[in-house]
UniProtKB/TrEMBL annotation:
The keyword Hydrolase applies. Keywords: Hydrolase. The keyword Hydrolase applies. It catalyses: an N-acyl-L-alpha-aminoacyl-tRNA + H2O = an N-acyl-L-amino acid + a tRNA + H(+). The lineage of its organism: Bacteria, Bacillati, Actinomycetota, Actinomycetes, Pseudonocardiales. It comes from the Bacteria. Its EC number is 3.1.1.29. This is peptidyl-tRNA hydrolase. One of its GO terms (molecular function) is peptidyl-tRNA hydrolase activity.
Length: 252
């Protein structure tokens, strides 16, 4: 049993919703809205590469969800379950210096990829966001596009929509959604093997033709069965239109 099981149960339903319904929050109590903070280390003197930072954020988000502390008897289970049972919101913020060190004391997991670091925290109610997190900026910094080269074999692939522009913060949240949805559909042996790699994955932007051939919106179950592909469909609260498919995740 995994705390991510509810994602697998509603995955196809979410992909099939009319776009305008993805942004409908009329069933939510604003005081109970929950989110996972994802903190991106962005030092002024030595900024990370964009791709490495996205890969670190993607790995950190799923690492929190599949940690032993997320199991039913673990300290993190209840806050994670409450979050996953609703919308899997993430809020990416940037930090450096002492502010980055401060968030290391909060419950969560830090992942480093090629010098880039991201820390995903145990989710909670937005109104209860710790001051160490709320003081961090959500926007204001961007990283230039890079050329990461061919994706390494044997790792899950996260494919960014080549027709959609996202900031590094938005992209970090989306790739974190992607690894969580992917993990929810893997069996226990596959999850364990992925954990052995530190939940490493590759983030790339494919050609438009490749994206369209793999995009599973019309047949989510068939796409998973044939190609091992799942999609992240965004509600559209920030940066992109409601119902936009932002990321595809493909199993290793």
């Amino acid at each position: 049993m995994s705390v991510l099981d509810p994602l697998a149960a509603r995955y196809a339903y979410w992909l099939g919703l009319p776009a305008e319904d993805t942004v409908d929050t009329s069933d939510e109590d604003p005081a109970e809205v929950r989110a996972m903070p994802v903190i991106l280390r962005m030092e002024r003197a030595e900024p990370p590469s964009r791709t490495a930072l996205l890969e670190a954020a993607a790995a950190a988000a799923v690492a929190v969800c599949l940690d032993d502390r997320a199991a039913p008897e673990g300290d993190w289970h209840e806050p994670l379950k409450a979050w996953v049972d609703g919308r899997i919101r993430k809020v990416a913020r940037r930090a450096r210096g002492a502010h980055w060190q401060a968030v290391q004391e909060l419950p969560g997991i830090t992942i480093e990829v090629d010098g880039a670091e991201a820390r995903a925290l145990v989710p909670g109610r937005v109104v209860d966001t710790p001051k160490e997190v709320s003081r961090l900026q959500i926007s204001g910094s961007e990283l230039p596009a890079d050329e990461p080269g061919p994706a390494p074999a044997g790792l899950p692939r996260l494919l960014l929509n080549p027709e959609v522009t996202m900031t590094v913060g938005k992209g970090s949240a989306q790739v974190g959604h992607a690894t969580m949805i992917l993990a929810s559909l893997l069996d226990e042996a596959e999850r364990a093997a992925w954990a052995e790699t530190g939940f490493r994955c590759s983030v790339r932007t494919p050609p438009v033709a490749t994206w369209k051939a793999l995009c599973p919106v019309e047949d989510p179950e068939g796409s998973w069965r044939r190609d091992g592909v799942v999609a992240v469909r965004d509600a559209g609260f920030t940066e992109v239109d409601p119902g936009t498919v932002t990321v595809l995740a493909q199993r290793a």
